[in-house]
Design a protein that fits this description.
This protein is an alpha/beta fold. The chain is built from ten helices and 16 strands. About 40% of the residues are buried. This is Xanthine dehydrogenase accessory factor.
């Protein structure tokens, strides 16, 4: 399964190749409770075909109904859903949620196709970019990303940060790693599993073939970008420690290893003494991994791991949970 945003771009490219006008939508902001985060994408055709999601169903129906009635023909506009009591009753947005959506109407053209190809390459690549849309002309350009909020509306332009799909790199196979793969796939992550042990050869994890290579070698090859989470879940230092030593030298946003506090303290000492890691590099490693949910079973531990990965990815501090 591909990351949902990449599915949207792929579908938009297919429809442009087939000569269709498309409506390209981006969630700009949410107020109250909303099912999709800022930056979520949807692409649609005038006949009601669509890919992606804005809200999980209710807003999509309203949006497609507007298309069917011949509305939303401007090159670019911002549409708000859920502002009035009638909206909230009709759309069934939870807890008074409000969505602000950027809607772009594009006819098939070489320029638009080229822009989509650049978006596709960015989602498949290593670096984040900034997508800037001019609200007066509808033109869009891609610029170097300088950090900041996922989306930003100011003056007559919208800035949207885009980047590679969230990647989970499983450094070794274990029951917890298998459960993590299932959760990660459900979240729309790209999942990669590496394990050189003979008994793991040819194994599938949630439909993903295990790559017969040391995770450390795979990581050293340039496999980690800034949307990569590396999780070491085998309890085998030959796999876990080497993977951690390489991961801290990458821009991966999350690096974690399974083990008790006592085991984690011993690992930290070993990584410093044998691996030559600095205190700052060791601080990057989440040890013990995951949120403290009192987890016991592999599925429960995997849930705590993926919850912590998502927490860090969304920029949430532990003390605000």
């Amino acid at each position: 399964m591909q990351h949902l945003d990449l599915q949207v771009i792929d579908q938009a490219l297919q429809w442009v190749a087939d000569g269709h006008d498309v409506w390209f939508c981006t969630v700009l902001s949410t107020y109250g409770s909303a099912p999709r985060a800022p930056g979520a994408l949807l692409v649609a055709r005038a006949d009601g075909a669509y890919a992606g999601s804005l809200s999980g169903g209710c807003v999509e129906e309203e949006f497609l109904a507007s298309l069917a009635q011949g509305e939303l023909q401007a090159p670019v506009q911002i549409v708000r859903y859920g502002e009035t009591d009638d909206d909230r009753r009709r759309l069934r947005l939870p807890c008074g949620g409000i969505l602000q959506v950027l809607v772009e109407h594009h006819a098939p053209s070489a320029t638009w196709r080229g822009h989509l190809l650049m978006l596709q390459a960015t989602l498949q690549g290593q670096k984040r970019l900034l997508r800037r849309v001019d609200l007066t002309t509808g033109t869009a350009e891609l610029l170097a990303d300088q950090g900041g909020e996922q989306t930003c509306l100011r003056d007559e332009q919208v800035d949207i940060r885009i980047g590679p799909a969230l990647r989970l790199l499983l450094a070794g196979v274990s029951p917890v790693a298998r459960a993590c793969a299932g959760f990660a796939r459900a979240l729309g992550c790209e999942v990669i599993a590496c394990d050189p042990r003979e008994e793991m050869q040819g194994m599938l994890i949630d439909g993903i073939e295990v790559q017969p290579i040391l995770p450390s070698v795979f990581i050293a090859s340039g496999a980690c970008h800034e949307a990569t989470a590396v999780v070491a879940l085998t309890h085998d230092p030959r796999i876990d420690d080497l993977a951690l030593m390489e991961a801290v030298r990458t821009p991966a946003f999350y690096i974690g290893a399974m083990g008790s506090r006592q085991t984690s303290a011993k690992r930290a000492e070993r990584l410093h003494r044998v691996g030559g890691l600095t205190d700052e590099q060791i601080k990057r490693i989440h040890m013990p991994i995951g949120l403290n949910l009192g987890s016991k079973t592999p599925a429960e531990i995997a849930l705590s791991v993926m919850a912590d990965v998502l927490r860090v990815y969304r920029g949430k501090a532990r003390d605000v949970l």
